[in-house]
Amino acid sequence: MHTYGMPSTEEEEDLPVDTDVLILRGVTRVDSGMYRCKSLDVETYMEMSSELKVVVNYLDPIVLTPSGSAELLLGETLTVSCNALSSQETRVVWMKDGQEMGRGSTLTLANASFDSAGDYICKVTVPAVPGLHRSSSVRVSVLGSPVVLQPVQLEELEGSKVNLTCKATGFPEPSISWEVSGTKDYQEVAHHVGKNTAVSVMSVIVTPDLKITCNASNSLGSNEGHFRITLKGSGVIIVGIIVGILLLAILGSVLYFLYKKGKIPCGRTGKQEISRADSGKDDIVVEMKTDKTEEAGLLQGVNGDKKPPSDQCEKYIDLRN
């Protein structure tokens, strides 16, 4: 004869059974405890018993604070807590977009950016009981005026067609508009609005006077990005002008140096000399110098001929009786 009992703090509770097997169905945490099996030998009337401790492991539903969704302004800090009662020690892991964001019952988002927005999942597991786990999520929204991804400087040929991309991030989702001057040949070829992001693509013909600005706005503010496009070859022209000026300066310096050294014919000005290298007894050597007042004068030779000023430089005249 077998009977089963469950001891309590006051008295033992008998569990009715028809066989020597006790079956507990739909167990809960209240079914945990010490179970005793009693057996009576009908021949000797000896009673034997044995005890078994039953532990029902459990993990209660997760409590998230805040729950469901949470909003904060750009740059603010948010702390989210995740708790669940369990019969055993638990482990808590936070996930976002498949990446682990932290461990422990609390998660702190400091200096929130637009990238901080998204769904955060709290996963609670019981390492001692494989397969016992729960999860819950909270959606975090970061509010702020748009931030425009600043365009890079472009260098294109005049008359070429280029596609300019404007990308803005913000929440509520921003709208994008364009300001174009210097050309009438432009059009928006693509526009997309996604999670906290808006993208617009503008096709435009490059001109020397092209100016183009991308504007992004939402209910919290606006921002803009300026596209800088330079023409290919314009830098080469500027360098050529600078080199030309330097060459002219060097050439002027060389000419001035040669003039000072007397290597350049003086023309109507400068030092004028009339001499004979090997003069004898009857030779006369005459050295003449003129100033600016004498530039228009004529040098009278011994034979009475007039000589122009251009023949008065670096020449020697033999004056003999």
Automatic annotation (TrEMBL):
<keyword id="KW-0325">Glycoprotein</keyword>
<feature type="region of interest" description="Disordered">
    <location>
        <begin position="297"/>
        <end position="321"/>
    </location>
</feature>
<feature type="transmembrane region" description="Helical">
    <location>
        <begin position="236"/>
        <end position="259"/>
    </location>
</feature>
<protein>
    <submittedName>
        <fullName>Cell surface glycoprotein MUC18</fullName>
    </submittedName>
</protein>
<dbReference type="InterPro" id="IPR036179">
    <property type="entry name" value="Ig-like_dom_sf"/>
</dbReference>
<feature type="compositionally biased region" description="Basic and acidic residues">
    <location>
        <begin position="304"/>
        <end position="321"/>
    </location>
</feature>
<dbReference type="Pfam" id="PF13927">
    <property type="entry name" value="Ig_3"/>
</dbReference>
<keyword id="KW-0812">Transmembrane</keyword>
<keyword id="KW-0472">Membrane</keyword>
<keyword id="KW-1133">Transmembrane helix</keyword>
<dbReference type="InterPro" id="IPR003599">
    <property type="entry name" value="Ig_sub"/>
</dbReference>
<feature type="domain" description="Ig-like">
    <location>
        <begin position="61"/>
        <end position="139"/>
    </location>
</feature>
<dbReference type="GO" id="GO:0005055">
    <property type="term" value="F:laminin receptor activity"/>
</dbReference>
<dbReference type="InterPro" id="IPR003598">
    <property type="entry name" value="Ig_sub2"/>
</dbReference>
<dbReference type="InterPro" id="IPR051116">
    <property type="entry name" value="Surface_Rcpt/Adhesion_Mol"/>
</dbReference>
<dbReference type="InterPro" id="IPR013783">
    <property type="entry name" value="Ig-like_fold"/>
</dbReference>
<dbReference type="InterPro" id="IPR007110">
    <property type="entry name" value="Ig-like_dom"/>
</dbReference>
<dbReference type="GO" id="GO:0005886">
    <property type="term" value="C:plasma membrane"/>
</dbReference>
<feature type="domain" description="Ig-like">
    <location>
        <begin position="146"/>
        <end position="230"/>
    </location>
</feature>
